[in-house]
């Protein structure tokens, strides 16, 4: 049983003032593996004060100095890739492919931002004005449990590039991962106060950050409901806000698609991160002319998506993060049947052979209508819905008929057709034929999937304010 009893303020690991504790679990076994001591509003005050004290000097650092910090952060995080992978596997239960990707990407985000910073002009002449891009001030970052240290590193990288000290509130359910990444980041030797981390509940530490008078900017990744609450709280002091929220992404199969290649990719995007991903393509849109064939191929391809303990390299779908999340997903599987959708594969309960752990049977519903709740609400688990469409115009109509607009996926043999469809999709990022991630491209959502963008120049400028001097 491990005890996390320190938070990180002013370049030091210190005990929190808060007295609350939260249990930590291994979701594959349901066993408690640790306890985290949580911070409170007083700890937020201490962390924000440390960041505020660091701001005047840090804001004046040169581009070269910040790039050097980003390179040190990359080295420090990359050096402990095995430790990061092990703790994610234990505390979160993610499959090997996701763990491997996450442990490597945690370090690489610093180099991605260093490349952005290298070519960025903080000063420029526009007409008769001298324009300077300045740090926004103290940043508060609130991060979720589904890719804990990835979000911490990405938001820290942007803050360092901008010259803005940061206070991070990670999910309390990921405290073991937070401890390891905090140790890595400490080794990079950032100036005291540039990085601060306070474990705590959202309604305590998150709320205190969202209303703190000395916080100028909030960056949040998480649910749309929580994003709304943060936006309301931040409005009182007109904080700058970036929100990366939920999604109900369409996975569009055009009628010329090569199903041998496409069906496994459709399932991979639907079940990404065990379905616990805002970008998951959970609505499969298929042409009615090929619906019967696609149904059969989805069922056959599902055999390759084994659910179980992520320690097994053959597993592609791990457990849900908590009992509460498991019960939520089960309730949606019941709801889908009550709404009249046809259970094509999967269903309620644990996968065969698994008697414990918060595992869900990979589930696909057919005969789904886009007005059903299982097609409109974010389930955040391995549950997909198959929706038929008449033609391309109908597919685009269904794809855009959602409160969300984070990601979308288009599969076709004719790239020109795929791009034409992509241009009509209301989403912040459209991926054609499983194209690889581009770290310099903007990431964020339309509609209720968020406000603002992350990554590259777009993410950097979200942490900056422009000042024009006319003489």
Detailed description of the structure:
It is a single chain. The chain has 471 residues and is an alpha/beta fold. Helices cover 39% and strands 21% of the residues. The protein folds into two domains: 2-245 and 447-470, Aldehyde Dehydrogenase, Chain A, domain 1, CATH 3.40.605; 250-432, Aldehyde Dehydrogenase, Chain A, domain 2, CATH 3.40.309.10. Strands 17-18-19-14-13-20-21 form a seven-stranded mixed β-sheet, with helices on both faces. Helix 1 (41-58) crosses helix 7 (202-211), helix 2 runs antiparallel to helix 5 (148-162) and helix 7 runs parallel beside helix 8 (224-235). The relative contact order is 0.14.
Please render the helix and strand layout as text:
Layout lengths: L1 E3 L2 E3 L2 E3 L6 E6 L4 E7 L3 H18 L4 H16 L2 H11 L4 H23 L4 E4 L2 E7 L3 E4 L5 H15 L3 E4 L5 H13 L7 E3 L4 H10 L5 E5 L2 H12 L4 E5 L5 E4 L5 H12 L12 E5 L3 H11 L4 E2 L7 E3 L5 H16 L3 E4 L17 E4 L6 H4 L6 E7 L2 H9 L6 E5 L3 H8 L6 E4 L17 E2 L4 H6 L2 E7 L1
Parallel strand pairs: 1-5, 8-9, 8-11, 9-10, 11-12, 13-14, 13-20, 14-19, 15-16, 18-19, 20-21
Antiparallel strand pairs: 2-3, 4-5, 6-7, 7-23, 12-22, 17-18
Helix pairs in contact: 1-7, 2-4, 2-5, 2-6, 3-4, 3-6, 4-5, 7-8, 9-10
Family: Belongs to the aldehyde dehydrogenase family.
Pfam families: Aldedh (PF00171)
Protein name: aldehyde dehydrogenase (NAD(+))
């Amino acid at each position: 049983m491990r005890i996390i009893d320190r938070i990180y303020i002013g370049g030091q690991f210190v005990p929190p003032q808060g007295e609350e504790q939260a249990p930590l679990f291994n979701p594959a076994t349901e066993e408690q593996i640790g306890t985290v001591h949580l911070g409170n509003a007083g700890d937020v005050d201490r962390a924000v004060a440390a960041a505020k004290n660091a701001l005047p000097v840090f804001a004046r650092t040169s581009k070269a100095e910040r790039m050097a910090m980003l390179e040190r952060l990359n080295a420090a995080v990359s050096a402990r890739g095995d430790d990061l992978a092990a703790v994610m596997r234990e505390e979160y239960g993610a499959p090997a492919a996701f763990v491997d990707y996450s442990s490597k990407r945690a370090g690489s985000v610093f180099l991605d931002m260093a490349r952005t910073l290298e070519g960025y002009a903080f000063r420029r002449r526009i007409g008769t004005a001298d324009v300077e891009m300045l740090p926004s001030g103290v940043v508060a970052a609130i991060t979720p449990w589904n890719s804990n240290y990835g979000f911490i590193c990405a938001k820290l990288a942007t803050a360092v590039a901008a010259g803005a000290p940061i206070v991070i509130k990670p999910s309390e359910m990921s405290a073991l991962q937070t401890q390891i990444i905090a140790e890595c980041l400490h080794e990079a030797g950032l100036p005291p106060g540039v990085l601060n981390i306070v474990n705590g509940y959202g309604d305590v530490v998150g709320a205190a950050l969202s209303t703190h008078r000395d916080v100028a900017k909030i960056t949040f990744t998480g649910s749309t409901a929580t994003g709304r609450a943060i936006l309301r709280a931040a409005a009182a002091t007109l904080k700058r806000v970036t929100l990366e929220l939920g999604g109900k992404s369409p996975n569009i199969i055009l009628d010329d698609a090569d199903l041998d290649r496409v069906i496994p990719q459709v399932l991979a995007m639907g079940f990404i991160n065990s379905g616990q991903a805002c970008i998951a393509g959970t609505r499969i849109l298929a042409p009615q002319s090929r619906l019967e064939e696609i149904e059969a191929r989805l069922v056959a391809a599902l055999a390759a998506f084994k659910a179980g303990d992520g320690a097994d390299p053959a597993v592609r779908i791990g457990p849900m993060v908590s009992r509460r999340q498991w019960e939520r997903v089960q309730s949606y599987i019941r709801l889908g049947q009550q709404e009249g959708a046809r259970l094509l594969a999967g269903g309620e309960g644990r996968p065969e052979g698994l008697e414990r752990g918060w595992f869900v049977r990979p589930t696909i519903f057919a005969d789904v209508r886009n007005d059903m709740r299982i097609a409109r609400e974010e389930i955040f688990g391995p549950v997909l819905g198959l929706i038929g469409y008449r033609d391309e115009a109908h597919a685009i109509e269904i794809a855009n008929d959602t409160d969300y607009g984070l990601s979308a996926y288009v599969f076709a043999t004719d790239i020109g057709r795929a791009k034409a469809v992509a241009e009509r999709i209301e989403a912040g990022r459209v991926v054609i034929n499983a194209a690889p991630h581009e770290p310099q491209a903007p990431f964020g959502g339309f509609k209720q999937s968020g406000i603002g963008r992350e990554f590259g120049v777009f993410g950097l400028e979200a942490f900056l304010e422009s000042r024009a001097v006319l003489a």
